[in-house]
Amino acid sequence: MKTTLEIIDKAMQQSHKQAIAFSGGADSMILLDIIYTRTPARPPVIFTDSGMEHPDTLPFIDKVCRQYNAPLHIARPKRSPIEQWEKSGWPMLGKLAARLYMQDHKHQGFRLDVSACCRTMKIAPARKLMRDMGIDLHFTGQRGGSDDALRGLRAIKDTAIKYLKADKLHVCNPLQGWTDMMVRRYTEENNLEIHPAKKQGSITIGCLYCGGGAQFTNSGFKILRRQRPEDWKRLMLDWRAGEIILAIKHDKTLADIRSAIKSIGGLEYLVETRPWIFDFLRATPLQGYDK
Asked: Is 159 left (phi over 0), alpha (psi -120 to 50) or beta?
């Protein structure tokens, strides 16, 4: 805790006006609690509604902000999710895994780019809103290596406080180095609110349609299918993500997969009769990636 507060204090000294990124997850919940209960600062809260949020997220965030008397500001992207994916790439396999996939699959008839989706649908709208508000310091709940390998590498490179010249914005990650155990302990000891979806068994409360972890055993697609079947069906059938999933899983081009699906009876037939085939992006989920 001492280190976290020192990071916050150091960042404050470089700033005139701050804001807190709040997703409704455990990490950002802890960050909000620390700043509002252990420092004199009262920065506004920034939430980005990407159009892919869990329906309980915004009501939950609004409730929490009211409890802390924290002003809430909502940013929104200009594109719909499907417009983003068709233009820049589908959010599947995870950021690093998607990059590696595209290095060897340049002519599949589709693109994967998790980073572009996060940047366009979440990060860019929030930073534009902050620029408009005159914010020059942005607190986030990212924990570096405890989040994922790519963020861990960035944490080593950028340290807990970095300056983004293009956005004229300092980004501070006070929870850098926190472990899962530290997060659980702080949450329990301080009786912090927990997102309703987490209580229902969701592993993450991030974007409903993200396939970032679907090559592993904790597939968000599988959870979405069981908890929110209508949203799952919109993704797989209306937006035809089912075709992309099967192309990745079987290492085929989109044209080949569409031909095979047609010969079997069509995408709708598969969605209705064999929904489980869309749960994972690998024929056999990789071992050792339960987190």
From this structure: left
Q: What are phi and psi of 249, to 5 degrees?
A: -60, -40
Shared-domain flag, residues 150 and 75: yes
Domain coverage including residue 254: 213-291
Does residue 164 belong to any structural domain of this protein?
Answer: yes
**Residue with the two structure tokens 């090559």:** 215
Do 194 and 226 sit in the same domain of this protein? no
Element (H, E) at 184: helix 180-189
Give helix 57-68 / helix 26-38 axis angle, nearest 10°: 10
| pLDDT per residue as tens, the chain (291 positions) | 889 999 998 998 888 999 999 999 999 999 999 999 999 999 999 999 999 998 899 999 999 999 999 999 999 999 999 999 999 999 998 888 889 999 999 899 999 999 999 999 999 999 999 999 999 999 999 886 544 454 444 544 557 888 888 778 899 999 988 988 999 999 999 999 999 888 777 767 778 898 876 766 667 888 889 888 999 999 999 999 999 999 999 999 999 999 999 999 999 999 999 999 999 887 665 555 444
Residues 146 and 217 in one domain: no
Which among 94, 98, 100 is positioned nearest to 112, based on CA atoms? 98
**pTM value?**
0.81
Compute the distance between CA of residue 283 and CA of residue 181 in angstroms, rounded to an integer. Answer: 32
The DSSP code sequence of 79-96 is S-HHHHHHHH-B-BS-HH
Query: Alpha-carbon distance 62 to 71, whole Å?
Result: 9
Q: What is the C-alpha to C-alpha distance for residues 51 and 215, in angstroms, rounded to an integer?
A: 23
One-letter amino acid of 37: T
Query: Terminus-to-terminus CA distance in the chain, angstroms?
Result: 24
